[in-house]
Amino acid sequence: MTSPAKSFSRRTAAAGAASAAMMLGAGPAALAQPAGAVNFIGWSAAVDQVRAQISAFQAATGIAVNYENFPWAQYRTALVTRLVANAPIDCSWISDAWLPEFAEAGWLADISDVSALTRYNAETTAYCTQSMVYNAKQYGLAYYGDHMSFMVNTDMLARAGITTPPTTWEEVVEQSLRMKQQGVAEFPLLLSLAADTWLIEFVSALNFSFGGRFVDDAGNAVMADANRGAVRAARFLREAIHTHRILSPGAVETGEINGLRAFGSGAHAFAIVPTYRIRALNDPAQSSAAGKIRLALMPKGGPSGTHETCGWIRFWGMTPGAKADRARRERTLRFIEFFGGRDTAGNYSMQKLLLTDMGLPSCAVPLAQDPEVVQFWQRWAGGGAVVAEQSGLARKKDVISPWFGEWVETSNQAWQNICLGRAEPEAAMRAAGAKWTELKRAFR
Amino acid sequence: MTRFGYDERSAALLVFPVLAVLLVVAAFPIIYSFWVSLHDIVLTRPLRRPFVGFDNYFRIFDDARFWTAVARTTVYTLVCVVATTFLAVLVALLLNEVFPGQRLLSALLLVPWATPSVVNGLMWKWIYDPTYGLLNGLLVQVGLLERYRVWLGDPDITLLLIANAAIWKQMPLAALLMIVTMKAIPEDLYRAARVDGANIWQRFVHVTLPALRPGLMLVLVYETMISIRHFDLFLIMTQGGPGDASFTLSWLIYVETFRSLRFGTGAAMSYVLAITTFALSWAVIRFLGKRI
């Protein structure tokens, strides 16, 4: 997911300063709290920032933290095996996609009755809170919430004489063909469609922008429905690759990171990218297209198109074991609040750090008015208006379910086969829909 | 009267620690994984793990993905084994001759074999990259390609490209085994063949090839066992894709076990793969063994 920030020395210094401030603010009483460790597992992202915040937390509360992290690609399996083996985990990072299966397995504690955490709902964007709720129970506090953004390379648009970014996918095709004709880019559109963990977010964003759904409100598969399903988006992808040739056939082997590099190299004019990558894309040290990448609303597709996109959230979850034990519960709640809510000084320090250092958008509403946050969006995205508008149009993945982990394998293959021209969009979506129905039935 | 003397008892005592370790690290996992394969274990549903007997085995034979994976694995294994063996014999014939730089070439031959699998996978992935890959660069520069093309993303050739990466790594060891076998062929046989008027091709067919059978058997068995279970290259280079173009049995087992977290069917698939590997190895040994 995210890569560790480079500014370790700055982080360390910040941690030291924060620790000192906390110690002064909290006084000896805080340091005299009974010692005990919080066992926290996360994926290998923002490692320096997390460590810095842990130092601040330990200084402020006297509570030790055992921090373990695993690469994102192996994280779910690593966490599940530990949970199955009853490893002493108190708190972990959870993806919204895993919430139903983790909740059904009894690995996440319901925090709906923990007012110390639920009070933050009033300051959290509704979309983020909803993403932490399953069967009317809330299972965590937000780590960050992000969405897929449509990004444009303004320099390439200007070179093609285009003054306004496209607002529909039809315009994307039109402008791309123009750029191809003028030799500005061979494949103006970039989509990362490798069969990895990001693929469902990319195709969901595209699908939502075409007004499509994978499943209806009752959880039944409608993805193969020609009018309200994912077929229109699938057809667009196939045509973009095979008819218009504005999207490289190599998209099926382009992962999110490689896509980011390719877009940053200035070889593509349009891309769907997680919003938090805007910082890296406009950073001259990391991208040769720096300063030229801007956000635009997700183009609308087809007759029922919208500017909607796919959003997701990662959150801090507590294990039932930690909740059941009073001392562990106390420690863990303080830890989660310090990271996912306000710290002991009353600031959203972690959420702010994640945004300013990594570009990870926050779910905390009050932070939007923070001068540093405003400055951040101004510096890296030319302003925060589009981010805010697109964030309001983000939908959580409609396929999140207890069988999501299994279904997504079939879905990924279906989308890749569409891109390869090896399957008709209708047939591929029917196959994905059939798998969904089979898994849903088997779950009962 | 005792059945076992002091020596036998001492020997048993000395062997026991190793036996105990083997039981724990080898026998127990084998037996336990078989036991797991008889249960419907899904890690995300920890409260239920019903005993289903051989249902998992029947289920995988009904699974279309399984037969796709069998087809892909068969093609991949055949390509790897045939190409590796053929190239190994050629390289062995070359390095069995005396010429300037022969020793250096023999040493360099081992470099691919010594390269870790993950590094090998990454290296070839970069070579095949559609935007900055060495292969595209080379082919365009020599005029064989007009423009950069997609390699691993082309489902018609993905499997062959992964096999090429595997052959590059596996061939040196096979060649080494062949060289060792060749060195054991008595020079008298070649002299006798020359006296009988045999040309170089006849000497190869009637002297070298028959004498290579022990080495060939070893290479064929080893390469079959390795290729049929290859996983790392698929993980690094294609993740079973694009589509299902490189969806082999090992990859299916990984997906079933570690992504879908269905340990029951994953274990059953592993047993099917293990039994198939043993059966193929046995067939090769039996077929070639008779001729040695």
Descriptive report:
The complex is a heterodimer of chains A (444) and B (292). With 444 residues, chain A is of the alpha/beta class. Chain A contains 19 helices and 11 strands. Chain A has helices spanning 8-31, 47-61, 72-84, 99-105, 115-118, 126-131, 154-159, 169-181, 199-209, 231-242, 256-264, 278-281, 320-324, 326-340, 349-358, 371-381, 385-392, 404-420, 425-443, and strands at 37-43, 64-70, 91-95, 133-134, 137-138, 141-153, 189-190, 270-274, 293-296, 309-318, 394-396. In chain A, the strands form 2 sheets. In chain A, strands 1, 2, 3, 6, 7, 8, 9, 10 and 11 form a 9-stranded mixed sheet that branches. A two-stranded antiparallel ribbon of chain A has the order 4-5. In chain A, strand 4 (133-134) and strand 5 (137-138) form a beta hairpin. In chain A, helix 1 runs parallel beside helix 2. The longest helix of chain A has 24 residues, at 8-31. Chain B has 13 helices and no strands. Chain B has one domain (38-289): MetI-like fold, CATH 1.10.3720.10. With 292 residues, chain B is mainly alpha-helical. In chain B, helix 3 (64-95) runs parallel beside helix 7 (158-183) and helix 10 (213-228) packs antiparallel against helix 13 (263-289). At the A-B interface, helix 3, helix 4 and helix 18 of A face helix 12 of B.
Topology:
The complex is a heterodimer of chains A (444) and B (292).
Chain A: H1 8-31, E1 37-43, H2 47-61, E2 64-70, H3 72-84, E3 91-95, H4 99-105, H5 115-118, H6 126-131, E4 133-134, E5 137-138, E6 141-153, H7 154-159, H8 169-181, E7 189-190, H9 199-209, H10 231-242, H11 256-264, E8 270-274, H12 278-281, E9 293-296, E10 309-318, H13 320-324, H14 326-340, H15 349-358, H16 371-381, H17 385-392, E11 394-396, H18 404-420, H19 425-443
Parallel strand pairs in A: 1-2, 1-3, 7-8, 10-11
Antiparallel strand pairs in A: 3-10, 4-5, 6-8, 6-9, 6-10
Helix pairs in contact in A: 1-2, 9-10, 10-18, 18-19
Chain B: H1 6-37, H2 55-62, H3 64-95, H4 102-114, H5 117-127, H6 134-141, H7 158-183, H8 187-195, H9 200-211, H10 213-228, H11 232-237, H12 249-259, H13 263-289
Helix pairs in contact in B: 1-13, 2-13, 3-7, 3-10, 3-12, 4-7, 5-7, 7-10, 10-13, 12-13
